[in-house]
## 1
Amino acid sequence: MAKFLKFLGPAADLDLASITRNTVLEFRNGIAKRNAPATANADLKAIKMICKAAKRDGYIIEDPAEFVETARIGSEQARRPFTFAEIQRLLSVADAEWISLILFGLYTGQRLSEQKISCEFLAEVEILKSRILPVHRVPRFPLHFIPLEMRE
């Protein structure tokens, strides 16, 4: 909701009826340009719920978000991998904890949000003799140990 109010700017102080379908579309499209379509759709869903409740409770006559479609998931651009130089720059300024996170992501392909830094994580990863075995894997594909350079 805070994103929508920020998007509206001074118009946020106007009557709820001043919000139009085009306003909701511009908001959705703006979010979709800067974020993944799933993020834009989650924000749109929140706006739809608010508008639906406002209509139900008699604050507005028409729901401006009712027929606004979700952002297309297929339009998402592929993310490019970090270059070697970018990884080196990250590692040069990172502390020990962040270096571990960056290297685990590099070796396992996990996103930061997928890395669990807890006892559960230690149960999912086996570190033996300078190699790592990611336990989460795609079925039907063999396990592969990934060699690590151990630093002291």
## 2
Amino acid sequence: MSRTGASCVPALPSAPSSLTCTSRGHVEQVSIKNGDAETTARLSDDPCVVTGAQGAGKIDRATLEQMFRKATWRLKAFEIRAPIVQPITDDVAVVAYKVHEELTVDGKALTLEASDSSVWVRRGSGWACAIHTEAVAGDPFGRDRSR
């Protein structure tokens, strides 16, 4: 599971003007930053597929909410950069962006640069994140990481 769950909903022609990639991404990041596990989980599909450095999996909302509640990290600040939105239909869109995060992990300060992507699906009158991926920025072959 990515540490942030950072994602954003696209602005589509049929979506309200307030439903933009940056604003929804901001809402989700703020909910994570504020420790609002319920809102963070509510923005995800049930279940949601997640991929990241720890692998790939499918997670239901209740488990996701508990993961955020019991997290050993805290998001202190974030900046979403260079969002890309690719509408697939009026009800499905792919969103990708770079994110800068300032965190505390196990009591230690950490700055993280990553690239995230999400697929958002309209569910009734709202949007849900069906899949979220996060890749830590760096050498594509991992040569800049130690084991």
## 3
Amino acid sequence: MNRTPSPRPSPVGRERVPDLSAAARRAKAKERVRGDVVHRRVLAGRHRTEPTTFNMKALITSLSVLSAALAVPSHAADKTLIDYFLPMSIRGPLVSNVWGAPGVFPRDPQNGLEDVTMTQWCYWDGQIIKRPEGRFHLFASRWDQARGHRGWWGSLAVHAVSDHVVGPYLDTGLCWPDNQGGKGHNVTALVLPDGRYAVVVNGWSDRKAYHITSPDGIGNWTFRGLAYDPTRDFLRYTDGTVNHWDKIERPGVLIENGHVTHFTFAVLDVPKEQEKGNDTHGSKIIVVPFDGAALDRDLQDAAKAGQPAAAATPRP
């Protein structure tokens, strides 16, 4: 007497899997992924899937975090200040027959303020102010290039002008020639509410810089990540050419319509101790476009979403 074999009982807690074709079983297996939960992360605008196994409690926790994160585009949450720098427009031809180490070639000598011949001055600092008539005024410091980078001990505060925000800037001379011979270093500038100019001068690790914010400038400082790093490819021109300056210091910003539109940096092509003077090395000021409107929008979105800070410095 023939008997039809009884179906094997399904494991406890699992539904019985019906008899399927080989292709269907493979498709079903891929769909189930052995009960794993597949999540999708977005990093720098690219999607990546990874299988992750966790229990129900962990799943609930993850979903609660995800619901908060969905209020901000994940690509924006992954960005730091360095990601908002824009390509530099090319004011003159990119050349290699000027002073500088190999890492800064080819470059645009018409960007910012420099002594193209490197026979007179090394420039440092740099703060741009746009006047109502449309011209751009750059405040900086300079010293005799023959003294090498250590010549900054005798640096003088200078004023330069340009019809274009990126440059070239023309050095018009000392800010205060009748006071201590124009002495000044770490020069910056701002426009006071009544329209007067104020210039702040002070005297003098890590080659990287970081971005922190505070709602009032006093406490509740939030660490936002990397601001700039000379080893990264963020100093680039519109044609894709990248410059790597050894030192990038003294950041300044130009604000228009409530947002940062450009950064200025004092840059040096070699380590400071290697800049001896009367050589093919030196320092200058560069101007780099910046998408401050996008940065402000992303920071505001993050604040509305209540995203936790990466780190915070305690109030002193």
